[in-house]
Rho termination factor N-terminal domain-containing protein
Amino acid sequence: MSEYEEEIVEDFVEQFDYDFEKIFSFKSDSLKLKDQLATLRKKDLTEIRKNLNIEGVSQFNKDELIVKLSNAIPEYLAKIIPFLAKTNYHFLNHVINSGQKKFVIDAEQINVEELDLGAFLFSYGIAYPALVEEGLLFIFPDEIYAVLKVSLKNSKIKEQIETNQDLLLKSWAMLNFYGVMETHTLYEKLTEYTKIEVGADHFNNVLYLNSNYHNILQEAGGIMALDQVMDIEFIYNEQMARDLDYADIPQADYDKLIEKGSIIFNFAQKRLQKYLLKNYDLESKEARALVHYISSLIQNGLKKSVISDELFSIIGKDKQGSTAEIGQLLVDINNQSRLWFLKGHRPEDLVKN
């Protein structure tokens, strides 16, 4: 790793540690929204204000901003509930059913999903999470709890949540083939493959909102991407630099991905998995996860030598001639995969044509 790359990693780790401490530190025991907001720095309040798309308040002092946000946050919450994903709707509904405005997830049950949700809720001033001795504490101020109690019991909202979850799954499946797409293009492409019962605006809102805390999608400037895309701008620019239409995906492949809810390996990926199991001390799940990881590096456009070095740094070189054998397997995976920067085309298909 170069000095430049090391600096990037160090900066990322420092920023992650700072954000984690900022988000999950205990703020206030109060159930009043203004009191919770008052514990934050003006910089943090400004971040919330930007997430809520509130303009014309850049000259407000901290107290004025707190008043503005305390009125705006409950209104914003009521507007975004119809766009929530199923998992997070169930969590908020569970909070309401428990009757606890100070809700604790047991320490042994905390996972990445809860931490992601905590970060999302905090970024909009909806809840105030903190890691405490008992586990992960969520404080829902009175004003927030009142909105949730009314909105989450709406039967139409429950039906909409199911639709939203379906949209996320279908979008995830589509982006497994294309990696990166402008949101309106993704919507148009999905209408070719499946029945979508919502308009483009609702679709855009669901994807934009859930990309903030859902672990399968990410959004950047109107472009939607799979979570495994390392550099959205790079992949998008690579796509635009090529005179290619988005590849036609066999309907059966798309339907199978939806049905399984997990990645389907091509023959080359299966051969690499089999090779790793035969020649290295790996469990089946470990080999599959490793092939998936290596495939994502190929999709992100990394050089074969870099990918090969990364693989051997994980498994070691236990077999003479393994460098050449694995090198060929990596070439085969590249040629047989529907590559993101080729808009879902396989290199071997483009050569044939």
